[in-house]
What does this fold into?
Amino acid sequence: MKPKVFITRKIPEAGLAMIRAVCDADIWDDPLPPPRNVLLERVRGVDGILSLLTDKIDAAVMDAVGAQLKVISNYAVGYDNIDIPAATARGIAVGNTPGILTETTADFAFALLLAAARRVVEGDKFVRAGKWQTWGPRLLLGAEVHGATLGLVGFGRIGQAMARRAAGFGMRVLYHQRHDSPVAESLGAVRADFDTLLRESDFVSLHVPLTRQTYHLLDARAFRLMKKSAILINTARGGVVDPEALYSALKNGEIAFAALDVTEPEPIPADSPLLTLENVVIAPHLGSATHTTRDKMAVMAAENLLAGVFGKPLPNAVEQK
Ligand code: DGY
It folds into this structure.
Protein backbone atom coordinates (compact mmCIF):
# COMPACT_ATOMS: atom_id res chain seq x y z
CA MET A 1 0.00 0.00 0.00
CA LYS A 2 1.24 3.51 -0.85
CA PRO A 3 1.89 5.91 2.03
CA LYS A 4 -0.83 8.51 2.51
CA VAL A 5 0.10 12.18 2.57
CA PHE A 6 -1.75 15.46 2.89
CA ILE A 7 -0.41 18.47 1.00
CA THR A 8 -1.88 21.72 2.28
CA ARG A 9 -1.66 23.65 -1.03
CA LYS A 10 -0.79 23.11 -4.65
CA ILE A 11 3.00 23.55 -4.70
CA PRO A 12 4.90 23.53 -8.04
CA GLU A 13 4.48 20.40 -10.15
CA ALA A 14 8.22 19.62 -9.87
CA GLY A 15 7.56 18.46 -6.30
CA LEU A 16 3.97 17.24 -6.67
CA ALA A 17 4.90 14.81 -9.47
CA MET A 18 7.57 13.19 -7.28
CA ILE A 19 5.04 12.70 -4.49
CA ARG A 20 2.16 11.49 -6.65
CA ALA A 21 4.41 8.85 -8.24
CA VAL A 22 4.82 6.94 -4.97
CA CYS A 23 2.17 8.19 -2.54
CA ASP A 24 -1.56 8.39 -2.19
CA ALA A 25 -1.62 12.20 -2.16
CA ASP A 26 -4.52 14.35 -0.97
CA ILE A 27 -3.86 17.90 -2.17
CA TRP A 28 -5.78 20.92 -0.86
CA ASP A 29 -6.50 22.56 -4.21
CA ASP A 30 -7.55 26.04 -3.14
CA PRO A 31 -5.63 29.32 -3.29
CA LEU A 32 -6.29 29.90 0.44
CA PRO A 33 -4.99 27.63 3.22
CA PRO A 34 -7.28 24.88 4.50
CA PRO A 35 -9.43 26.20 7.38
CA ARG A 36 -8.50 24.73 10.75
CA ASN A 37 -11.47 22.32 10.89
CA VAL A 38 -10.71 21.08 7.38
CA LEU A 39 -7.05 20.62 8.22
CA LEU A 40 -7.91 18.61 11.33
CA GLU A 41 -10.25 16.41 9.28
CA ARG A 42 -8.14 15.89 6.16
CA VAL A 43 -4.94 14.92 7.98
CA ARG A 44 -6.53 11.95 9.72
CA GLY A 45 -4.68 8.73 9.06
CA VAL A 46 -1.87 10.17 6.88
CA ASP A 47 1.79 9.15 7.13
CA GLY A 48 3.12 12.55 6.16
CA ILE A 49 2.07 16.20 5.87
CA LEU A 50 3.55 18.72 3.47
CA SER A 51 2.73 22.05 5.08
CA LEU A 52 3.17 25.73 4.24
CA LEU A 53 4.16 28.55 6.56
CA THR A 54 0.47 29.52 6.66
CA ASP A 55 -0.54 26.25 8.36
CA LYS A 56 -0.32 25.99 12.12
CA ILE A 57 0.87 22.46 12.78
CA ASP A 58 0.55 22.05 16.52
CA ALA A 59 -0.02 19.14 18.91
CA ALA A 60 -3.77 19.11 18.12
CA VAL A 61 -3.07 18.57 14.42
CA MET A 62 -0.46 15.88 15.14
CA ASP A 63 -2.89 14.07 17.43
CA ALA A 64 -5.70 14.36 14.87
CA VAL A 65 -3.44 12.61 12.34
CA GLY A 66 -2.74 9.60 14.55
CA ALA A 67 0.30 7.75 15.83
CA GLN A 68 1.37 6.65 12.32
CA LEU A 69 2.43 10.23 11.37
CA LYS A 70 6.12 10.06 10.49
CA VAL A 71 7.01 13.38 8.91
CA ILE A 72 6.04 17.02 8.55
CA SER A 73 7.78 18.61 5.59
CA ASN A 74 7.53 22.40 5.57
CA TYR A 75 7.62 24.19 2.21
CA ALA A 76 9.75 26.99 3.72
CA VAL A 77 13.05 27.47 5.48
CA GLY A 78 11.28 29.02 8.48
CA TYR A 79 9.31 26.60 10.64
CA ASP A 80 7.82 28.75 13.38
CA ASN A 81 4.40 27.48 12.24
CA ILE A 82 5.28 24.00 13.56
CA ASP A 83 5.39 23.03 17.23
CA ILE A 84 8.81 21.37 17.18
CA PRO A 85 8.81 20.09 20.79
CA ALA A 86 5.39 18.49 20.14
CA ALA A 87 6.76 16.78 17.00
CA THR A 88 9.88 15.63 18.85
CA ALA A 89 7.81 14.23 21.72
CA ARG A 90 5.83 12.18 19.19
CA GLY A 91 8.87 11.01 17.22
CA ILE A 92 7.80 12.92 14.10
CA ALA A 93 10.59 14.16 11.82
CA VAL A 94 10.38 17.75 10.56
CA GLY A 95 11.97 19.00 7.34
CA ASN A 96 12.47 22.45 5.82
CA THR A 97 14.03 24.00 2.70
CA PRO A 98 17.26 25.80 3.66
CA GLY A 99 19.94 27.10 1.32
CA ILE A 100 18.12 27.21 -1.99
CA LEU A 101 16.22 30.41 -1.24
CA THR A 102 19.12 32.33 0.31
CA GLU A 103 20.18 34.39 -2.71
CA THR A 104 16.60 34.90 -3.91
CA THR A 105 15.49 36.24 -0.53
CA ALA A 106 18.57 38.46 -0.23
CA ASP A 107 17.81 39.83 -3.72
CA PHE A 108 14.36 40.80 -2.52
CA ALA A 109 15.59 42.31 0.75
CA PHE A 110 18.06 44.39 -1.23
CA ALA A 111 15.32 45.35 -3.69
CA LEU A 112 13.26 46.64 -0.75
CA LEU A 113 16.29 48.49 0.62
CA LEU A 114 16.87 50.23 -2.71
CA ALA A 115 13.19 50.89 -3.32
CA ALA A 116 12.80 52.43 0.14
CA ALA A 117 15.99 54.52 -0.07
CA ARG A 118 15.23 55.86 -3.53
CA ARG A 119 11.45 56.11 -3.15
CA VAL A 120 10.66 53.89 -6.13
CA VAL A 121 7.13 53.00 -5.02
CA GLU A 122 6.23 56.60 -4.15
CA GLY A 123 7.65 57.70 -7.53
CA ASP A 124 5.45 55.25 -9.37
CA LYS A 125 2.34 56.36 -7.43
CA PHE A 126 3.22 59.99 -8.13
CA VAL A 127 3.47 59.41 -11.87
CA ARG A 128 0.25 57.36 -12.05
CA ALA A 129 -1.59 60.07 -10.11
CA GLY A 130 -0.73 62.51 -12.93
CA LYS A 131 1.44 64.65 -10.62
CA TRP A 132 4.63 64.60 -12.73
CA GLN A 133 4.83 68.10 -14.17
CA THR A 134 8.56 68.70 -14.48
CA TRP A 135 12.02 67.59 -13.33
CA GLY A 136 12.27 68.97 -9.81
CA PRO A 137 15.40 69.84 -7.85
CA ARG A 138 13.69 68.74 -4.63
CA LEU A 139 11.33 66.13 -6.01
CA LEU A 140 11.15 62.86 -4.02
CA LEU A 141 14.66 63.08 -2.62
CA GLY A 142 15.87 59.88 -1.01
CA ALA A 143 18.77 58.45 0.96
CA GLU A 144 22.23 57.46 -0.30
CA VAL A 145 22.83 53.72 -0.40
CA HIS A 146 26.50 53.62 -1.40
CA GLY A 147 28.72 54.43 1.54
CA ALA A 148 25.87 54.02 4.06
CA THR A 149 25.93 51.62 7.02
CA LEU A 150 23.89 48.45 6.80
CA GLY A 151 23.07 46.71 10.08
CA LEU A 152 22.23 43.04 9.74
CA VAL A 153 20.29 41.57 12.64
CA GLY A 154 21.11 37.89 12.19
CA PHE A 155 24.09 36.74 10.18
CA GLY A 156 23.09 33.33 8.89
CA ARG A 157 22.90 32.44 5.21
CA ILE A 158 20.63 35.30 4.17
CA GLY A 159 22.36 37.89 6.35
CA GLN A 160 25.69 36.90 4.78
CA ALA A 161 24.17 37.12 1.29
CA MET A 162 23.10 40.67 2.16
CA ALA A 163 26.67 41.50 3.19
CA ARG A 164 27.93 40.30 -0.21
CA ARG A 165 25.44 42.57 -1.97
CA ALA A 166 26.33 45.49 0.31
CA ALA A 167 30.01 45.14 -0.62
CA GLY A 168 29.08 45.90 -4.22
CA PHE A 169 27.49 49.13 -3.04
CA GLY A 170 30.50 50.15 -0.95
CA MET A 171 28.49 49.95 2.26
CA ARG A 172 29.85 49.55 5.77
CA VAL A 173 28.34 46.39 7.23
CA LEU A 174 27.61 45.66 10.88
CA TYR A 175 26.09 42.41 12.02
CA HIS A 176 24.56 41.24 15.24
CA GLN A 177 24.44 37.67 16.44
CA ARG A 178 25.55 35.84 19.56
CA HIS A 179 28.89 34.58 18.21
CA ASP A 180 31.62 35.92 15.96
CA SER A 181 31.07 34.72 12.42
CA PRO A 182 34.09 32.98 10.83
CA VAL A 183 33.15 34.46 7.43
CA ALA A 184 32.56 38.02 8.63
CA GLU A 185 36.07 39.29 7.90
CA SER A 186 36.04 38.01 4.33
CA LEU A 187 32.69 39.74 3.84
CA GLY A 188 33.93 42.98 5.38
CA ALA A 189 31.32 42.76 8.16
CA VAL A 190 31.98 43.80 11.75
CA ARG A 191 30.15 42.36 14.75
CA ALA A 192 28.32 44.87 16.91
CA ASP A 193 26.11 44.60 19.95
CA PHE A 194 22.44 45.14 19.24
CA ASP A 195 22.23 48.71 20.55
CA THR A 196 25.36 49.86 18.71
CA LEU A 197 24.05 48.36 15.48
CA LEU A 198 20.75 50.19 15.92
CA ARG A 199 22.46 53.49 16.75
CA GLU A 200 24.94 53.40 13.86
CA SER A 201 23.00 51.88 10.97
CA ASP A 202 21.34 53.79 8.15
CA PHE A 203 19.57 50.58 7.12
CA VAL A 204 18.59 47.84 9.56
CA SER A 205 17.71 44.56 7.87
CA LEU A 206 16.28 41.61 9.82
CA HIS A 207 17.47 38.05 9.16
CA VAL A 208 16.61 36.07 12.29
CA PRO A 209 14.08 33.28 12.68
CA LEU A 210 10.99 33.95 14.79
CA THR A 211 11.55 32.42 18.20
CA ARG A 212 10.64 33.31 21.78
CA GLN A 213 13.90 35.29 21.91
CA THR A 214 13.30 37.27 18.71
CA TYR A 215 9.57 37.96 19.18
CA HIS A 216 9.12 41.76 19.05
CA LEU A 217 12.89 42.23 19.12
CA LEU A 218 12.28 45.52 17.34
CA ASP A 219 10.19 47.27 19.96
CA ALA A 220 9.68 50.87 21.10
CA ARG A 221 13.07 50.92 22.83
CA ALA A 222 14.83 49.67 19.71
CA PHE A 223 13.18 52.29 17.51
CA ARG A 224 14.20 55.04 19.92
CA LEU A 225 17.83 53.97 19.53
CA MET A 226 17.73 54.06 15.73
CA LYS A 227 18.65 57.09 13.64
CA LYS A 228 15.74 59.33 12.70
CA SER A 229 16.83 58.81 9.09
CA ALA A 230 16.99 55.00 9.44
CA ILE A 231 15.19 52.59 7.14
CA LEU A 232 13.99 49.22 8.47
CA ILE A 233 13.80 46.21 6.13
CA ASN A 234 12.03 43.06 7.27
CA THR A 235 12.07 39.94 5.12
CA ALA A 236 12.30 37.56 8.11
CA ARG A 237 9.04 37.14 10.03
CA GLY A 238 6.48 39.77 10.96
CA GLY A 239 6.58 38.79 14.63
CA VAL A 240 10.16 40.03 14.98
CA VAL A 241 8.76 43.58 14.89
CA ASP A 242 6.18 45.00 17.30
CA PRO A 243 3.69 46.50 14.81
CA GLU A 244 2.31 49.09 17.25
CA ALA A 245 5.78 50.31 18.15
CA LEU A 246 6.67 50.44 14.46
CA TYR A 247 3.58 52.50 13.69
CA SER A 248 4.45 55.01 16.42
CA ALA A 249 8.10 55.18 15.36
CA LEU A 250 7.15 55.88 11.74
CA LYS A 251 4.36 58.30 12.64
CA ASN A 252 6.48 60.25 15.15
CA GLY A 253 9.60 60.38 12.97
CA GLU A 254 11.71 58.16 15.23
CA ILE A 255 12.72 56.30 12.07
CA ALA A 256 12.25 57.39 8.48
CA PHE A 257 10.84 54.43 6.61
CA ALA A 258 10.01 50.73 6.74
CA ALA A 259 10.01 48.25 3.89
CA LEU A 260 8.27 45.06 4.93
CA ASP A 261 7.85 41.73 3.18
CA VAL A 262 6.35 40.16 6.29
CA THR A 263 3.88 41.47 8.85
CA GLU A 264 2.19 40.51 12.08
CA PRO A 265 -0.40 39.22 11.50
CA GLU A 266 -0.13 38.00 7.94
CA PRO A 267 -1.82 39.07 5.74
CA ILE A 268 -1.88 42.57 7.21
CA PRO A 269 -5.48 43.55 8.04
CA ALA A 270 -6.94 46.14 5.64
CA ASP A 271 -7.57 48.47 8.59
CA SER A 272 -4.02 48.26 9.96
CA PRO A 273 -2.80 51.75 10.96
CA LEU A 274 0.46 50.98 9.14
CA LEU A 275 -1.43 51.15 5.84
CA THR A 276 -2.36 54.78 6.54
CA LEU A 277 1.30 55.84 6.51
CA GLU A 278 3.19 57.11 3.47
CA ASN A 279 6.58 56.05 4.82
CA VAL A 280 6.04 52.32 4.61
CA VAL A 281 6.12 49.90 1.68
CA ILE A 282 4.62 46.44 2.14
CA ALA A 283 4.98 43.39 -0.10
CA PRO A 284 2.95 40.18 0.37
CA HIS A 285 5.75 37.87 1.60
CA LEU A 286 7.56 37.55 -1.73
CA GLY A 287 11.14 36.91 -0.57
CA SER A 288 11.50 33.49 -2.21
CA ALA A 289 8.97 34.13 -4.97
CA THR A 290 10.75 33.28 -8.21
CA HIS A 291 9.80 30.41 -10.53
CA THR A 292 13.20 28.76 -10.13
CA THR A 293 13.37 28.97 -6.35
CA ARG A 294 9.80 27.86 -5.74
CA ASP A 295 10.44 24.83 -8.01
CA LYS A 296 13.59 23.98 -6.03
CA MET A 297 11.69 24.36 -2.75
CA ALA A 298 9.01 21.99 -4.07
CA VAL A 299 11.61 19.34 -4.91
CA MET A 300 13.34 19.73 -1.55
CA ALA A 301 10.06 19.56 0.38
CA ALA A 302 9.07 16.46 -1.64
CA GLU A 303 12.43 14.82 -0.89
CA ASN A 304 11.96 15.42 2.82
CA LEU A 305 8.39 14.13 2.74
CA LEU A 306 9.30 10.99 0.81
CA ALA A 307 12.32 10.20 2.97
CA GLY A 308 10.12 10.55 6.05
CA VAL A 309 7.22 8.39 4.88
CA PHE A 310 9.65 5.66 3.77
CA GLY A 311 11.43 5.71 7.14
CA LYS A 312 14.69 7.27 5.93
CA PRO A 313 16.59 10.23 7.42
CA LEU A 314 15.39 13.53 5.94
CA PRO A 315 17.93 15.20 3.62
CA ASN A 316 17.07 18.54 5.28
CA ALA A 317 15.90 17.93 8.80
CA VAL A 318 15.16 20.63 11.31
CA GLU A 319 17.19 20.33 14.49
CA GLN A 320 14.84 18.81 17.07
CA LYS A 321 15.60 19.06 20.76
C1 DGY B 1 10.58 30.82 4.17
O1 DGY B 1 10.97 29.91 3.42
O2 DGY B 1 10.62 30.71 5.39
C2 DGY B 1 10.11 32.08 3.53
O3 DGY B 1 9.54 32.95 4.43
C3 DGY B 1 9.17 31.80 2.37
O4 DGY B 1 9.89 31.20 1.38
Residues 53, 76-78, 101, 287-288 surround (2R)-2,3-dihydroxypropanoic acid (CB under 6 Å). The chain has two domains: 4-99+292-309, 102-282. Residues 291-309 form the longest helix (19 residues).
